[in-house]
Specification:
The chain is α/β, with parallel strands linked by helices and 371 residues long. 38% of the residues lie in helices and 15% in strands. The radius of gyration is 21 Å and the shape is globular. 43% of the residues are buried. The structure holds pyridoxal-5'-phosphate. Keywords: Aminotransferase, Pyridoxal phosphate, Transferase.
Length: 371
Amino acid sequence: MPAQTTHDQLPGPAEKVRIRPALEALPAYVPGKPAADDGTRRFKASSNESPFPPVDAVRDAAVTALAGSNRYPDMAALDLREALGAQHGVDPSQIAVSTGSVAVSGDLVRAVVGEGDEVVYAWRSFEAYPILVGSHGGVSVQVPLTDTFEHDLEAMAAAITERTRLIVLCTPNNPTGPSLSTEQIEEFLDRVPEDVVVAIDEAYREFHDPATVVGTAGIFRRHGNVVLLRTFSKLQGLAGLRIGYAVAHPRLARALSQVTVPFGSSLPAQVAALASLRGEVQEELAERAEWIRDERSRVTAALAEQGWQLPVSQGNFVFFPVGEGSGAFAAFADERGLVLRAYGNDGVRATIAEQQANDLLIEIAGAWRRR
Ligand SMILES: *Cc1c(COP(=O)(O)O)cnc(C)c1O
């Protein structure tokens, strides 16, 4: 019988390979903490996931598709791209699909950002941005948010240089919550050279108040340098399946298809995304979005009552600007059964999750203020 060994016990050979020095300077992506499994009821409100499992019809479609997993998926994801193209009023060739919109953003960086080129984005914003930019040899130009935790578009326009190749606007902004208006983005675009790509990351679009949501479809039609990023990970509840896409103009779309990993999105993911676009599923998803918005209103009203002044959130999350107290506040919530996400000394983000989790959030936020 061979001796029982584990990888931990093996000494391992000396490792002398050269890793690109740029990678040493990069922060590691910190995923939202899982809810600990220690017997007490805990809620995970740390990754902006949907508290709802996938819609039944979507899950069934993905499960059925698993039976064909001995075959490679359609590399071009044509059925899905045709449906998305119809939805967005563009040719299917203008839809770029990959394993989540983070992957599509990575493709975007690889398509347009060369060694030493600059990428401008707000900070704080989505923590994947610095990693995607830095790991592909680009230079991040982070423009601080305003004191109301919104994009400072004036400062972002001023940060554009000869080296700028890409600008990312995140609306609603993760992790702080405020969104941009159509007018704000149009005015901003007037100040951006036409050869600089402007990506609008709309991961949380569906949670926005529909009456005031930014008109990105029109913005896209008017500007040849705009690309829209969308995901199935949030409202659609498919975070674990990994699928997202970009709506791009033809030349950029072609470039994205050139750099993307072949066969990136899996067959069940493609099929599930496609099923999510069916009319009756869209209706159910719209009801879920409304439920989340109602819960967000309920939570923010209760927090305001307690004296909290939070940035106005249009996402499925709220942001507590507790500064140096961020780690302590997250730990305080953790001890009471709610897993939140702390961002250095900037603040703490809480996902609007199950009703019980939201009740607990209100309770914990109140207890924190009274402590
Ligand atoms: C969650 C999120 C995404 C989605 O990422 P996927 O790779 O599609 O799961 C994209 N952008 C932002 C800002 C997000 O918060």
